[in-house]
């Protein structure tokens, strides 16, 4: 019974952490549809991290996101976190920086990764 309880506790803790991080994606336009830059038809679930699944070292976008309050804002939208010549808003489908959580982004296709 002790092994079962320990295993269950560990699974619940990991599940809570994973779902907590994934909630950040809901703070971004198309946050749950950011493509993997190197693997067609794969998504990059950890948008603000160097690891595609999230966790660990943050990429430039993740650092900007946290520095600016962990929320989508005009300032974060207008930045080019990864230095590729496109603003974060252009990459995530909100080129005019008008998106708000819970609404459909202005563009839902042609999404690119703002941190890679």
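^ Assign residues to that structure.
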């Amino acid at each position: 019974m002790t092994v079962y309880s320990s295993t269950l506790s560990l699974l619940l803790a990991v599940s809570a952490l994973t779902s907590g991080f994934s909630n950040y994606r809901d703070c971004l336009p198309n946050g749950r549809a950011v493509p993997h830059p190197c693997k067609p038809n794969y998504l990059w679930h950890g948008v603000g991290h160097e690891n595609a699944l999230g966790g660990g070292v943050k990429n430039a976008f993740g650092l900007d996101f946290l520095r600016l309050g962990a929320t989508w804002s005009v300032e974060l939208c207008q930045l080019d976190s990864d230095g590729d010549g496109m603003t974060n808003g252009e990459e995530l489908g909100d080129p005019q920086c008008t998106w708000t959580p819970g609404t459909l982004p202005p563009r839902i296709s042609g999404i690119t990764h703002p941190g890679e």
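The chain has one domain: 24-116.
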